[in-house]
Amino acid sequence: MQPPRTDWDAIVIGGGPAGSTTARYIAEGGADVLVIDGRDSIGSPLQCGELVPSNDEMRRLCPDVPEIDDLLRTPDSAVSMRTSEMRLVPPSGKPLCYDFEGMVLNRVVHDEALVELAESKGAQYLVGSRVESVDGETVRLRDGSEYTSRVVIGAGGHNDPLRKTKWEVKSLIIPVKFVLMSGDFEDALELHFGSMAPGGYAWKFPKLGGANIGLGIQTALARGKSLNEYSEEFISRYDGRVEFRGAGSLPMSGSISSFVKGNHLLVGDAAGMVLPSNGAGITIAMIGGRIAGQVVAQHLRDGTPLSEYEVRWEEQMGKVMRNSKRAFRLGSLLFRAPDWLLNLAFNRLTKPLIWRAVTCRPLLS
Ligand SMILES: Cc1cc2nc3c(=O)[nH]c(=O)nc-3n(C[C@H](O)[C@H](O)[C@H](O)COP(=O)(O)OP(=O)(O)OC[C@H]3O[C@@H](n4cnc5c(N)ncnc54)[C@H](O)[C@@H]3O)c2cc1C
To answer: 121 alpha carbon to ligand 1 midpoint, in Å?
Structure first.
């Protein structure tokens, strides 16, 4: 259904975790906001490993981010399984085991809940409508209709139309394939590293009655083998029935250097807000979304400069993102090494160091 109005205080392109969270806080701040998404319904089809840290784990991972419980209100209906152990598995199969509180989501339900939360604050949605281009305050849809807005936020993922036209910045993109498999699986989360996923990693995240199993690679390191072949080989290690197959891609260069140009902003994957050392994008997109939404609402109210969004992001996520980028660069070197060397590198002595790298802490201290 077309919304009756064409002029808005703010328009958000994309209603994923970044866009819906941005819209939630813009609406909460008293401005009117329209979210435009090409999908109907938002969140489908699934493109995700579906793992997020618990809120307590998020407080440990991102200690400078305030009020995590207000931001991350994951309803029980969106959680398929709560887990308490993460295994980092080298090619030998001998894992390093860590305490880690995770939630494996029903991601579709999760994203729908974020839409409902934003709507409950007053945000409006236009779904099944793709944004073709943005020109100043004018947002043009593929069907030719136009909307205007004082501020436009690109939250359309790494192919966001605003990012494509206004930001000349390239990110490393990791293609990913995954399946939902039904069957009996151990309760631990698993991340696998080595030649089975060159330059990337593979995962098995248990769900109620099954698991989400997938793999991402750096194509430049794939040695002529396709992502399909790598993913099928990894998935065939597990017994169960494949219920769903999905694919997507992840930006893995970390956050880009600037999120604001004039009255245009980027947030979430569009701004590279994925922690490259562990692939976490959902919660990080929501952290960025809250900051963006609060600053946009303030800007519309009292003229606060939009660049305040970058200042607050740096305060809350600067250190964590820098540590994560550093760890990913280091990991990329290590994961080019032959499997026997990787097996040696995963040992009792390096165990704490590897965990610090994956969880975005400084390696020394
Ligand atoms: C296979 C895979 C597995 C992943 N696993 C995990 C995981 O286990 N844990 C984790 O934390 N992260 C994971 N991620 C990353 C995570 O999914 C993203 O970081 C997160 O979804 C980013 O949120 P977003 O709102 O920025 O983008 P998205 O969730 O991609 O939402 C973007 C929205 O914009 C819409 N859109 C795009 N272009 C347009 C347009 N032109 N017009 C209108 N609408 C548009 C899309 O329809 C979509 O709804 C995974 C990603 C992939 C691909």
So the answer is: 22
* Rounded distance from Cα 185 to ligand 1 centre (Å): 26
Which of 342, 351, 360 shows the shortest CA–CA distance to 92?
Answer: 342
Give the Cα separation of 342 and 338 in Å (integer): 7
Low-confidence ranges of the chain (pLDDT < 50): none
CA angle 148, 12, 145 (to 5 degrees): 40
Protein residues with CB under 6 Å of any ligand 1 atom? 13-19, 36-39, 42, 47-52, 130-131, 155-157, 160-161, 176, 178, 248-250, 268-270, 274, 279-282, 285
pTM here is 0.97
Minimum-distance ligand 1 atom for the alpha carbon of 205: 8
CA distances 132 to 60, 143, 266, Å, are: 40, 9, 16
Atom of ligand 1 nearest to the CA of 18: 25
CA-to-CA distance for 29 and 296, rounded, in angstroms? 9
Q: Which tens digit of pLDDT belongs to each residue from 114-145?
A: 999 999 999 999 999 999 999 999 999 999 99
Structural domains in the chain? 7-77+106-171+253-327 (3.50.50.60), 80-103+172-251+339-358 (3.30.9.10)
CB 293 within 8 A of CB 271: no
12 CA → ligand 1 middle, Å: 14
Centre of ligand 1 from the C-alpha of residue 113, in Å: 15
Q: Can you give the pLDDT at residue 365?
A: 67
Instruction: Quote the ligand 1 centre to 129 CA distance (angstroms).
Output: 17
Are the C-beta atoms of residues 50 and 28 closer than 8 Å to each other? no
Rounded Cα distance, 335 and 333, in Å: 6
For position 222, what pLDDT does the model report?
Answer: 86
Tokens found for residue 69: 């419980």
For the chain, the straight-line distance linking the first and the last C-alpha, in angstroms and rounded, comes to: 55
